[in-house]
Amino acid sequence: MLVNANIVLLCAVLANLSAIVALLQLNIHLLLFLDQKRRQNEQLAISALVDTNRCMQRIYAKRRRVAAPRRYWINPGRTSTWWDNLINGETLEEEWKKNLRMTKDDFLHLVDQLRIDIQPDENAIRDSLPPEKKVAMTLYYLKDQGSYLMTCNAFGVGKSTLSSVVKDVCKEINRRVGTNYLKLPTTNEEMSNLIDAFHKKFGLPQVFGCVDGTHIPIRQPTENPQDYFCYKMKYSLNCQAVCDHKGRFLNVEIKWPGSVHDARVFANSDINCMFQKKLIPMVMKELLPGEDKVPPVILADPAYPLLPNVMKEHACCTKNEEVIFNEMLRSARNQIECAFGRLKARWRILTRPMDIKLDDLPTVIYACFILHNYCEIKSNNNCINDDIVQNQIQLEQNMQNCHHHSVADQLYSYNSANGTYVRSIITSYLKEYM
């Protein structure tokens, strides 16, 4: 019985030991779990502290950030000393002709015509530019192949200021000066004077001008660039002009892309419409007894249509008088090529793409034509280098003699019956009186 009691007691002790071991294991697992949670909480607290420190650092960095560099109205070191010396008479008179393409007196006369529209605004916050400086900046920019930067350095102004001034001054030149210096004849007397002067100089009757086109290079447009890519393998605007016997422009049209043929430009031009509607003074003259009277005409190259008011060469000469007509027409038509040459030699900006938006280019280009006439009328031909003029004229002549101008647009370069009849009268007149 004693042995059985001991066995029972031993079993009870062993059962208690098992329970104690299980309880210890449970306590160990609980301690490990609590330690893991403690470490996780510590890690989260450290992360939150780091994030807080980073946020505070960004806040402090913003507070300590160095102020942005100051923006200047006029860049330091850029002055208008050159212009001040020029307008105050401290430089030679030749500097006016060399840099502004006209004498000081002619310059001041031009400024007086524009003064009312470009004078400074009385309510301007900053110092405004006087009219003399605005016009000088525009002429200086147009006279050379330089950029905005060259003109800004010479006059001590910013690029944005110069850009605005050039567009505004050119716009006022077109509006105020253009009506006096670039226009077609409006009366019979004016037309008769042009015809008589042309006849006296070149021997062709009833001619008052020459018509042709020239290409002004531009930057590649963002929209429809293929329309502006011309036969000269560059982007351009096709500008049509009519000039008189002295190379002064009577009519200019600047709205066609460079890829458009000259004959198509003329067919849709204002001057062709004026011829058809007889808005130009029709000073008719009887050249030969018994023949119809001949209207005023302009001379064109073979790419243009033959119309009652537009004369071009005989395509195939079978008579001596036709050869004479062709030679005299080529000699007289050379006047427009020389006019383009002097234009681009005087305003060299027309020989390179300008730093101006495409929408604003016609305004600036048209102002160059007006300023060309202004200088020609003021007898300032000596204000441009003769070598540059001759080189530019040669370039224009080479362009006019290229294959593009000998190939006619079949739709627009036709020979009308009335045009052929008028040309035959003029040809017979040359046979009779030459």
Which labels suit this protein?
8% strand, five-stranded mixed sheet, alpha/beta, 434 residues, 2 domains
Detail the topology: elements first, then pairings.
Elements (H helix, E strand, L loop, with lengths): L1 H63 L16 H7 L6 H7 L3 H15 L12 H12 L5 H8 L3 H23 L6 H15 L4 E11 L18 E8 L5 E9 L4 H6 L2 H7 L20 E3 L10 E2 L8 H27 L14 H17 L8 H15 L2 H4 L10 H17 L1
Parallel strand pairs: 1-4, 4-5
Antiparallel strand pairs: 1-2, 2-3
Total strand segments: 5
Major β-sheet profile: 5 strands, mixed
The main sheet orders its strands as 3-2-1-4-5
Give helix % range. Answer: 55-70%
Oligomer class: single chain
Whole-Å distance between the termini? Answer: 170 Å
Output the radius of gyration. 42 Å
The number of helical elements comes to 15
The topology string of helices and strands comes to HHHHHHHHEEEHHEEHHHHH
Query: What portion of residues belong to β-strands?
Result: 5-15%
Low-confidence stretches: none
Shape: elongated
Number of domains: 2
**Which class of secondary structure composition applies to the elements?**
alpha/beta
The mean pLDDT is 86
Structural features, described:
The protein is of the alpha/beta class and 434 residues long. It folds into two domains: 81-181; 188-433, no CATH class. Helix content is 56%, strand content 8%. The protein has a five-stranded mixed beta sheet. Helix 5 packs across helix 7.
Task: Briefly summarize what is shown.
The chain has 434 residues and is α/β, with parallel strands linked by helices. It is built from 15 helices and 5 strands. A 5-stranded mixed beta sheet has the order 3-2-1-4-5.
